[in-house]
Amino acid sequence: MPASVGLQLRDTRLVIFGSTKAGTPVVQAVPLAALDLPLKVVVWEDGNQTKVSYTDPAELAGRYHLGDDLAERLAEVPTLVDAVIDR
């Protein structure tokens, strides 16, 4: 914890999620994709606002030169995150 070493951190949470069925073929094809999988979403307090950020799946697909079939496995991330936020 930052406080234990004399540091402060705004209220921040890291949510890690993934699907073995979706992610495993990606990592099998491109082992370096394991650097970004499972997927992560960071949620933090910024003044009176709560912010949510994650790496766009299209960016990940481009970073690892994924074909359409593998990129589709990550494409639902924005929909999932939006569904959680809207709750």
Structure, briefly:
By secondary structure, the chain is α+β, with helices and mostly antiparallel strands.
Order of helices and strands: EHEEHHH
Tell how many strands the DSSP assignment holds: 3
Q: What is the average of the pLDDT values? A: 91
End-to-end Cα distance, whole Å, is: 29 Å
Low-pLDDT residue intervals, each spanning 5 or more residues: none
Please explain how this structure is put together.
The protein is of the alpha+beta class and 87 residues long. It has one domain: TATA-Binding Protein, CATH 3.30.310.70. Helices cover 38% and strands 22% of the residues. The protein has a three-stranded antiparallel beta sheet, with no helix packed on it. Helix 1 (20-29) packs antiparallel against helix 3 and helix 2 (57-63) runs antiparallel to helix 3 (68-74). The longest helix is centred in the N-terminal third of the chain and has 10 residues, at 20-29.
Attribute tags:
single chain; TATA-Binding Protein; three-stranded antiparallel beta sheet; alpha+beta; 22% strand; 87 residues
Write the layout of secondary structure elements.
Elements: E1 12-17, H1 20-29, E2 39-46, E3 49-53, H2 57-63, H3 68-74, H4 77-85
Antiparallel strand pairs: 1-2, 2-3
